[in-house]
Amino acid sequence: MIEYQKIETLYKFDNVTKTYRKEFFNPYVDYLKDNEWIASEKIDGTNVQVEYDGHRVAFHGRTERTNFPKEVLAALTGKFADSEVVFEQMFGDKPVILFMECYGGIMKENEHDVLATFDPQIIVDNWDKIRSIIAEIPSAEEMEALYKAVGSKYLPEHIGIDPALTDEMLPISAAIRNRLTLVRMLRVLDFE
């Protein structure tokens, strides 16, 4: 397995603070930033190497430690089931590696929007119960103390995200998993 080629990031990474800065990595992106752009969603995928060693096809991730989810491995195995013959016809015994991104998990996860069948009146009817449940959630300070005690990461900068991006991340965070959360309900409820 060879080192997976790094996919260029949008922002520059500060190796000292281990956070992304609001400074574009690529000068072309900086040049184009004032143009009108339309984006529909970020694709969250899995880095894959399809390696043909001259005889067999094997699958690797971005690192040696990659363990593919069984659905990804099944999809790769199905897609490349008869590929050894094709590789041999095209490349002989010359080694070839295809670098690719397998995606679909988030799109599949959100294929059926939980808000499609959501009735906001249920929230109105149960608001007192919901507020009492929320009141039992530990405070931000208590959660921070707990996270610190167990050595957990709890701030965006702990995972390499510029804290300045927090306001942009929160509204889209609900799309990561298809669950009915208060953040997701903000799209249909008017909290005063």
Fold topology:
Blueprint: E1 11-14, E2 19-24, H1 27-32, E3 45-52, E4 57-60, H2 70-79, H3 83-91, E5 96-103, H4 105-109, H5 120-125, H6 127-135, H7 140-150, H8 166-173, H9 182-185
Antiparallel strand pairs: 1-2, 3-4, 3-5
Could you explain how this protein is built, in words?
By secondary structure, this protein is α+β, with helices and mostly antiparallel strands. Helices cover 35% and strands 16% of the residues. It has nine helices and five strands, in the order ββαββααβαααααα. The strands form two sheets. It has a three-stranded antiparallel beta sheet with strand order 4-3-5.
Number of strands: 5
Q: What is the straight-line distance between the termini?
A: 56 Å
Q: What is the topology, as strand order, of the major beta sheet? A: 4-3-5
The rounded Rg comes to: 22 Å
In one word, what is the shape? Answer: extended
Figure out the total of helices.
9
Average pLDDT, rounded to a whole number, is 77
Q: In percent, how helical is the residue content?
A: 25-40%
Strand content: 15-25%
Q: Would you identify the regions where 5 or more consecutive residues have pLDDT less than 50?
A: none
Judged by helices, strands and strand pairing, the structural class is alpha+beta
Main beta-sheet strand count, sense and barrel state? 3 strands, antiparallel
Helices and strands, in N-to-C order?
A: EEHEEHHEHHHHHH
